[in-house]
Structures
1.
Amino acid sequence: MSKLRVVHYINQFFAGLGGEEKADVKPEIREGKVGPGMAFAAALGQEAEIVATVVCGDSFYGENMEEARKLVLDMVKGQKAHLFIAGPAFNAGRYGVACGDICKAVSEELGIPVLTGMYIENPGADIYRKHVSIVQTGNSAADMRNAVPAMAKAALKLARGEDLKASEDGVMEKGIRKNMYREARGSQRAVDMLIAKLSGQPFETEYPMPDFDRVPPNPAVEDISKAKIALVTSGGIVPKGNPDNIEASSATKYGKYDIDGVTDLTSDAYQTAHGGYDPVYANDDPDRVLPVDVLRDMEKEGVIGGLHRYFYSTVGNGTSVANSVGFASKFAKELKEDGVDAVILTST
Amino acid sequence: MRLEVGYINIKDVQFGNATEVKDSVLYVNKQDMLDCIGSDPRLEKIDIDIAKPGEEVRITPVKDVIQPRVKAEGPSGVFPGFVSKVDTVGSGRTHVLRGANVVTTGRIVGFQEGLIDMTGPGADYTPFSKSCNVVVICEPIEDLKQHQHEEAIRLVGLKAAAYLAEAARDLAPDELKTYETKPLLEQVNEYQGLPKVAYVYMLQSQGLLHDTYVYGVDAKQIIPTLIYPTEVMDGAIISGNCVSACDKNTTYHHLNNPIIHDLFEKHGKELNFVGVVITNENVFLADKERSSNMTAKLVKMMGVDGVIISEEGFGNPDTDLIMNCKKIENEGIKTVIVTDEYAGRDGASQSLADADAKADAVVTAGNANEIIKLPPMKKIIGHIEPVDVIAGGFKGSLKEDGSIEAELQVITGATNELGYNRLSATTV
């Protein structure tokens, strides 16, 4: 059997080019193994061979990410590699980010197994652990002799198409939830878990509770009669026909709609895109979900300073918390820039 | 309260001249069945079809699945408040056609209806690919409002199940099981030394097509109350909702509630199962507070040591689940909660809309957002077009060749939160 072709990525320091003063070198490719590649070659044994090493300065990668990524990808492409290994980066922040980023890109673009290694507190770990297998290493190169064999072993497993386990392979948990089958059905597991909990025996929850992000309410608006108010809804109110195709559930987008001159949301012009409730009453009178009519009255009466020209809308039906946070961080910025003082959030 | 459940195993379903069971085959006289179940003026057309395990058949949009049951001996009848009077159920003897189910389909009511594949990868996720299904296809009259449409189909489904179950009334069951719960004070004292356990059964009641009925009453209007577990086996609780297909409790799931069955398995051996508290999942904060307060108070009054709490649905009801858990733990009663997850298609998002450190014992039925691919099927019962809009589907879910790429959410019963399946999720 022919050996697996491995491409290895390292920074300028481990390639022996120099330290900070050489951190701006552009990517270059060298035949065979370089620096820590020697130890990898020994640990990979007969199964795999490092056919090329890409060397890149950490500052160059960090400051020109798109360009660096493209240059390195092109170099790796030419090697017909079966496996891509980057680092280990230990606690070197820029190096860790570069290793994570290039592994992610190689995996996505070339579809081959990728692996890197770094210290758990390396900023690259937090950014890329969701996407890339990262072997947990010590915080300095002194750990090289442990890191390399662990990475080589894990990399070979990946190349054989096996899954890595945090407990066995020393990789960091990606922190993503993945479906799997357990031995017993859920109800039986619940009964067994309760019996264990009641008798003081150890038990393992299947979903450890996250730290919940509780948002304390802002102080009250001091003078509402001067405040510019915007409407934001997860109730799915959109112009008739749902022009942005916001999904009925598990929304991946939101819409921003101009209501300049609109005093009432009529059933001819607006509807809900939401798939989680009986839409009859919302479609009859969309103001029931997004109260433009009432706010226009209040605007006229001087109760509020004014209604913002745009409303933002999405569907909060099975929509992930991550997507919701993503939407709001974008449009909250716009609302601020537009001088909005307060927002009324409506659901369904 | 003591109930005997006689299971009559059904291995095949066929149309025939008379509706009867012979040698584990259920024969259905189609015309007779149509005459019996179809008189609702809100439905323009009703048809009946059969789908069997292994066939290249896709049923969609699925509204409910109902197991045929009949009261063979004793007071009242199944599905009280709908096809029978509202007498208290849960005692006597009930006969069940095990292996045959009624599935209701037809033009979509809301967005949250499901899909059942009888073979292929989708079949692995739903228990209803393993049963012979008598599919009732109901098409409504024009311009029927959704809530009327839902009600009409719900009633036809229950009538269909009751109709088929008549064939089981006088048969000798293949298996007879007895379930008994004594009156509370007796039951509590029956097994000294075993931990006393109750089941907190959360019923979907968000409203606007998210409803469950208890003895015919909309669960939105109940306050938490105590019932015998065997009442559930006679259809005291039925589904009337169009919540996402993967984690709504179909009427079948209520009738066969696996938490109740698995608690009975350990009853008198490792625990003392003293009763069931039903509660709801209303959307107003005051309702949530009231119901969770009442639930915590009730289980404390019962004097139990531990409870299992099951959720139905997701998102808004996550808050009810966590309130129940927290308040019951605060009473010094241990809890295990059963839920499923909406962790995003990539699994990277937070899974529930609420969380609390007290919820330290969680059983999960899997991430409903995970993407699945389903090959085309030769035959569609119902309508295939809604696949793009049912919860879990998206524009382009339905491909030109009839294959489907959608979230697991679309499959009926896939992440059932009564723990009916082995599917779960873990952090990788």
2.
Amino acid sequence: MREVRYWQALNEALREELDRDPDVFVMGEDVGIYGGAYGVTKGLYEDYGEERIRDTAISEQVIVGAAVGAAMTGMRPVAEIMYVDFLGVAMDQIFNQAAKIRYMFGGKAKVPMTLRTQGGTGRGLAAQHSQSLESWFLHVPGLKVVMPSTPYDAKGLLKAAIRDDNPVLFIEHKMLYGTKGMIPDGEYIVPLGLADVKRPGSDVTVVAHSRMLLYALEAAETLEKEGISVEVIDPRTLAPLDMDTIMTSVKKTGRVVLVEEGCKTGGVGGEIATRIMEEGFYYLDAPIIRVAAKDVPIPMSPALEPLAVPSVQEIIDAVKKLYV
Amino acid sequence: MIKELKLPKMSDTMDTGQITKWLVKEGDFIKKGDPIFEMQTDKVNLEVEALEEGVLLKIVGKEGEDIPVGQVIAYLGDEGDKVSDIPAQPQEGQEKKQETEAKTEDVQMPKPSSAPDIQPEPTPDIPSMEKPKGDRIFISPRARALAQREKVDYSAIKGTGPMGEIIERDIKEYLAKSALQQPAPSKEQAVPSTAAQGQRIEMTGMRKVIAERMLASVAAAPHIYLTADIDMTQCRDMRTKINDSLADKGIKISYNDIIIKACALALKEYPYINSTLKDGAIILQDRINIGVAVSLADGLIVPVVRDTDKKTIVEISKEIKELAGKAREGKLMPDEFSGGTFTVSNLGMFDITQFTAIINQPESAILAVGAIKDTFVPVDGRPVVKPMMKVTLSCDHRVIDGAVGAQFLKFVKSMLENPLLML
């Protein structure tokens, strides 16, 4: 085992897959000579050359469209969109092309592409560079949505995403790139569709993904001192969603808090809450609480930005509201 | 004068009964001897007759519910009595303790969960133990599911949830408290929504009794099993002769009738096999009453041939036919299936070669009889085909040692191999 940062874990995953499979290539804005806006592709251009590490024009439509085309011909592109906020520009390529082609061609064509991007708040980048838009894509059958919260998961999930024969939207978090974590020395894969119990507990279940997972763990730590045992679950993959792991926990605790950095209305939490109710209403001992971003554009002001999204304290308050 | 009509006890093993159908209505005048309701007990369906006459004022024992023996099921009165004359009192349960508890602890306390819900619908005429409900009760789905599973009436439980609602913790505390006050509550399965679905068949009446008694027998009695091969050549010849000569009278005896007769004679020789263990003593029964297991569509019952040793094979045969017929129609009377001292169970007609039976407590042994099969047997070193039958005796080893059981079996075998000895 050794300690790496989140960006390094991603960088390792890319290198291992580039080495393993000659069909894998990387493309996106500034992924080549510059090494990626957040450093994920650092050194790849030097080691793998411009043929496999390709800088593109500033055109999201072209990046996604070219990746879909390349994937259909048998390549395994790993395309990067610098901010999740920019996916709107390439929306038709994503939900009408990438997600639908396998179905429309009756399985004769497939789209084994990975679309890396990052989202979230924390750097004062204002309303157009700070969103958490994952819930949009849950509504599109044919897309997988992956959101790692730790270096270990980031590496294992990215390798699984690249090897998957379907389009995978891989959303990183701008505040996680510098975080550290342990990973094994050898190769490993984290399969898509498998949640992880990041902290076992017995009183309340907290489900959180991406950076909110770290907040949830911090809240659980504080609550433990007050005698409340919180089980923290990271779905890791939002589509497909591992309801088994979540329901096992709900059956144990009967109380659920769902945390996300995206807006509450139409968010991920609404979907998970409904599924918990459908599958296990009679296991619930209290209403489900969602802790999510306010339904406002993310402010640029460093004083206001953290108020728009959940804080550790808000998670603590929610748990206490359920468990007195 | 108002009289209480209570659920009668129809057999030794009966703890509860189900009224399957009331044959009279409220307001009817009932004469002594009138059939008033049909009841399913642990063993049979019966019509219950009135022991007293009067006007049926009020029915409180509902059809289809398990009702403890001794529970009030209706009120009888004289002409002119009104429903409102029925004295107000809490429902009388089987256990006095339960009743006094309820009285002293304030009638709002919900009933202990072990008793099936036997309260009538609250009516102005008969005050119930339930407190009147005003606003709805707030209870979490999880707590409600638990309450249903454990049959807890939660209307009087005080909630400790964040908004004062009843949560799982409150039901658990209630259960823990009532477990201290009384034997463990019965755990009948409720319906957790995500559990596997399947057809649900209530364990009632006969099924419940079979389950309880078989489990009790296996738990209490260490069984030993002894198997013997019996040559049925002579029995076969004798049976053919008897049946041929009595054919014009419509009499046809079975092998089982002969086996029962042989057992009766053997029991006389070996009284320990015909015994029962009671209060730390072995009671050697002074009568030989052999039960015959009869399978029914929904269970089995063991009608008893009394004083089997004193009856001829033909008498035994007639009696068993009659009892089995009644059993299949559900018309056996309690004294026709109680008081057995030994049981014979025969699965030969299903071509079962050999099996082991569970002792029908409080008896101490049971004989499991298999099919008669043509089998090669060595006779003077040469194979000869003979009709052979395997029987297995299950003995309660607390009472019967292997050697005693073996001697009994040897005796049965010698009787069946030389049936003339039975005459």
3.
Amino acid sequence: MLHIVNKSPTERNSVESCLAHAKKGSKVLLIEDAVYAATKGGAAEARVRSAMADVTIYALQPDLAARGMADRVIDGVNLVDYGGFVDLVAEQANCQSWL
Amino acid sequence: MSEEMDMEEGGTIKKFMFVNRKAPYGTIYALESLEVVLISAAFEQDVSLAFVDDGVYQLMKGINTDGIEMKSFAKTYRALEGYDIEKLYVDRESMEARGISEDDLIVDVQVVSAAEMADLMNEQDVVLSF
Amino acid sequence: MATVNIAGKDIEVDEEGYLTNLADWNRDVAEYLAKEEKVDMTDAHWEVIDFLREYYDEYQIAPAIRVLTKAIGKKLGADKGNNKYLYELFPYGPAKQACKIGGLPKPTGCI
């Protein structure tokens, strides 16, 4: 299962709820305002780090760059471009968006 | 103030505050706010900007929107000075919660506590929220 | 979307004649747009156009007229940073007309 989140972790609880419902071994892709969850020093950092034990976290690089956050990514978060986004969707049996 | 006074003085100057609470690019709020701010400058009012919650992300340095095919407006905050809009307040607690410091911001701002921000909001004639 | 043919190239403009794509701009395009506006380009005109394009490059907006006059006064001297000088160069509004010729969007805060 691929989970896709696009809301800021400090504005909505989408990231939090997604991580609470993601089964071990699934993948979580952070896009648009959800990329703030993949950055150091943010309120969501600890939650994302602990989630990494069970799920693989990805973040869309162009969205990080557009927000001036490209240099602040938490170690262990995998960066993908739009091609990588498509590959993730294609290789998973199903996917769920957390709006 | 009476109408006659307004006429004599060519209008009253009111205190306007634009409160920005949304991250840029994910939604249209930040850009809409900035455009209204620039237009409001034509009316020569006492304008200030507040950046609270995710709004502090609007002022990040190093923004590059080439990859998402949207126009960047980060540099436009630097034009505000030329529009005589020099009161930019950033909420300290909001920055701290996001691991951001004053050095990470593209313009000079006044960093204020939530309590100070509350006082600033309270003294406005008009508060516009984005 | 309307297009105009300038030096053998089709270029998109909006309903008011502003370039749709900033990247389409060059000196030939400026000369064409100036002719449409009935402005005879001189060095003084180019000085304002170049200033506007630099301003746009730095701030990503076209300035309102009040801001333009102030900024020009600072950079090019008080004899140029005033409405009279700029309106003589661009009679139908320096901000609007010069922005159009300079290939920039209409000024933000232009009312």
4.
Amino acid sequence: MQDQYKINIRDMSFFIEKKQIIYDLNLDIRTNEILSIFGPAGSGITTLLRALNRLNELIPGARIEGDILLDGKSVYRKEVVLTELRRKIGMVFDVPTPLPMSIFDNIAYGARLKGEKNKKVLSDIVERALKEAALWDEVKNRLKTSALALSGGQQQRLCIARVLALEPEVILLDRPCSGLDPISTAKIEDSLTQLKERFTIILAPHNLQQAGRVSDYVAFMLMGELIETGKNDDIFANPKDQRTSDYITGRFG
Amino acid sequence: MRVKPKTTELIAKILIWSAAIFVLAVLSFIIIYILYRGLPMISWSFLTEIPRNMGRDGGIASPIVGTIMVTAVAIALAVPLGIGTAFYLAEYTKESGITRVIRFSAESLAGIPSIVYGLFGFIFFVIYLNLGWSVLAGGLTLAVMILPTVIRTSEEAIRAVPQSYREVSFSLGGTKWQTIIKAVFPSAIQGISNGIILGVGRCVAETAAIMLTAGGALRMATSLFSPTRTMAVHFYILAREGISMSNAYGTAALLIILIFIINVVSNALVNRFMAKNR
Amino acid sequence: MSKFRENISKYIFLALAFSSISALALITIFIIINGIPIIAEVGVLNFIFGMSWAPSHGEFGIFPMIIGSVTVTLGAALLGVPIGICCAVFLTEFAPQTISRIFRPAIQLLAGIPSVVYGFWGLLFIVPMIRNWFGGPGLSILAGSIILAIMVLPTVISITEVSILALPRNYKEGALALGLTHWQTIYSVILPSAKSGIVAAVILGIGRAIGETMAVIMVLGNAVAIPESILDPVRTLTTNIGIEMGYAAGTHRQALFATGIVLFIIIMILNATAQYVTRKKK
């Protein structure tokens, strides 16, 4: 069967002022699969994720070369409307970041930005998103309370629900479980494996075990370069590059 | 003979403690004395009656209304201008020539003495714009005076909003404007309102600038164009002309209570703000 | 549509941000155009160094007022700055938490009390005290300096405190680890490191003192004469405006605006210096 590619990254280099963060990166990302991009801290993984939804543009002096295609079309085209692009490519950050408002308002935030005012529609969106993120049962009786009062794990699932409410096509997760306990992490990983049926998921795992547990494909990055990519089992079982095997076996540094 | 470090230490400690105690003592003395002489004067009729006989008799109802009106005008103008400036400085621009000029202007405005504001308000609002001695002229003058306070506190509050809130809002498809209105502003509102309250405090306490711009009428102000006097001006005239010491004490006591309340509210806001951001 | 709204909002904010620039420009222009004619008429030097102020006779010399402002402010700085710095050191280094929890709001209250109330209190207590202890009319430079010293305390204390608190913790710990006593640490490490902040505090305090009107108007005596001692009454630039603005007209009013120009220039120099000092620190 022919592979379906959702995203193609072509000869992508990324700079902040004069400093190069990513070197000449090529990567094809398949539809309805979970891709984990792993590597030591400072490898440029966060930058890569943020190049996809163009959030890097908030950084002064940021500059990109090469191209990134979504469904075969460049996300850096002139006519791309940033807000629409970011709704298509949702993002979950490493630290749970509920906005200081109620649970309901957090989930409805994106829809309201789009101009949705109908109460019924909004509450349907909120309910569906919270159910998909496996948070509904825990919060359904306190939707009007502050999202800041939730536990860390609940907050992160809230953030995932908030992205799901956008009905995106791609979900970027930047070390979403780095501050969470194992039980919360397991819950999030469970929902990710269910969500991949409908979304393309790109995950920066916070450790190798997570990459091994949830991903179909993995990619290894080191100091801004993509070293190797392939099926999960292949890379972990017999990496082709010495650096990959060094990193996997913990012989690095 | 060399003084032993222990001895110096002791002397320094005594000096520093006595400076602190001295300041507290002076402050308490001023406040307690004014309250002691003024509180007995404050009664329902004092608050609700219009001054009669140049202020010798009657209450201070019209200066109270004058204070409220002038302050309201000042806040109504300074708040949108100040918050807008703060958002521009914090959200819309990198440090550049233009921000330096804006900052320099705001800091300079903060340092200008109130009597110079009075001169300016008199010649610009009262004479040039032909508003006459009025609530409006006084309020506009105070608006310029408190503008830097509103700018500074608002900018600090906006900068204290975590960057992640902005990133989340953008990543959910928010435009810059939506992000500012829906994610940043609600989180900064407490700090901003603290700035507004400090501005109110300055308006209530101001005398020189109002005296030259709002006139000194004892009548109840009926419109923005009526001349009026504020409580601080009323107090000054009563005390300086020796019209009625007891009414002067009463007015001063009321002013101090007002300032005290304003400070308590402001501190409560700041504390809640800090607790939330921890 | 949304792009359009984005740009509009940006320009609205920019326009609002110009409010402080235009306010400063308007103040500068209107004070200057109303004061310059009389300065041009009597001459800059005659205006600034003239000894006689008699507006009804066309004599406009503000030198006594300049001396008045300078002496009263100097006195306030001499009294207020050491006490203010001591209080800031007290707050950051010595005060038990219970006391600092009272002290900080107290200082805030001190800053908020209307200046007329200070003047009134000075008239009731400081002036008679000076009259009884030192003789003279009591309405004097000394009385004004004492009142202003109290009034600049909040400025001096808060800015000094902030600059001490901004010091890295290891400065203090390093000094203590070297075996310095607490006071030696404060004296030889903390205060020198916080110097630029303290200097800014002093300059801004002086700016506040020299610009204050209502507090000193009641206690200075307001005589237009060069003082011979600190027990003599004086008039400052600010009180000159405050007293006479109510009834001045024509050239007299222009002369008061000209007084405002001089005051304005002094303040702008002080502000610019303070801004320069704080910026250099960063």
